[in-house]
Amino acid sequence: xxxxxxxxxxxxxxxxxxxxxxxxxxxxxxxxxxxxxxxxxxxxxxxxxxxxxxxxxxxxxxxxxxxxxxxxxxxxxxxxxxxxxxxxxxxxxxxxxxxxxxxxxxxxxxxxxxxxxxxxxxxxxxxxxxxxxxxxxxxxxxxxxxxxxxxxxxxxxxxxxxxxxxxxxxxxxxxxxxxxxxxxxxxxxxxxxxxxxxxxxxxxxxxxxxxxxxxxxxxxxxxxxxxxxxxxxxxxxx
Length: 238
Ligand SMILES: Nc1ncnc2c1ncn2[C@@H]1O[C@H](COP(=O)(O)OP(=O)(O)OP(=O)(O)O)[C@@H](O)[C@H]1O
What we know:
Layout: E1 7-16, E2 19-29, E3 34-38, H1 45-52, E4 60-65, E5 68-69, H2 75-79, E6 83-86, H3 98-103, H4 118-124, H5 126-130, H6 141-154, E7 159-163, H7 171-186, E8 190-194, H8 198-204, E9 207-212, E10 215-221, H9 230-236
Parallel strand pairs: 3-8, 3-9, 6-7, 7-8
Antiparallel strand pairs: 1-2, 1-4, 4-5, 9-10
The protein binds adenosine-5'-triphosphate.
């Protein structure tokens, strides 16, 4: 196993319009590591992800992916480094079947492996297996979110980034999605998760980062953090 982190962000400053949103954000995600990024609304979590993924350019700071400089690189180059994004909202094609939605995303991983096949994704999401011949527009919100995660898996990634993947989903579906994240983690794929369900995230992740007003104020193992931890509660307004 290589010690080079998959993602290394160093001192990122990002402006959106005339607003200075990120104030020197540094973070790493190592191989196989599950990391969550926590923070109240508007603290800069999505902006951090977008800066790392090349969707916005930082005014200062550096992004390295697998040790290579990738600051503001085009998003498809970053994707080719084995990084898959599951965005907030769905993006499922309404006129394609579940099978077509999944298969169109298939591609080998960075090292050429093709371990995540259509069949394996259906085994991971029995609910999608039942619906495999349905069209995208016949699916519930939770099923659509499962497709977006399934599509990310079909790219045989080293890291999956999930931004609010369980937003607006029923508790039962949310539980199913967390179970899949656990499976993904056990398969050795790193995850970077942003979500509002702090308790669930602490139970799922190895490490937690907490953002306040564009800065990372806490970075530590989740093993030492309880959901009612004082510092955590203060920063998250729990
Ligand atoms: N296009 C924009 N121009 C100016 N400010 C923006 C723009 N987009 C977002 N912001 C501001 O940037 C700040 C950080 O937003 P960001 O979406 O990164 O926060 P977040 O922590 O992901 O919050 P949320 O959980 O609400 O998505 C917010 O205060 C937001 O109002």
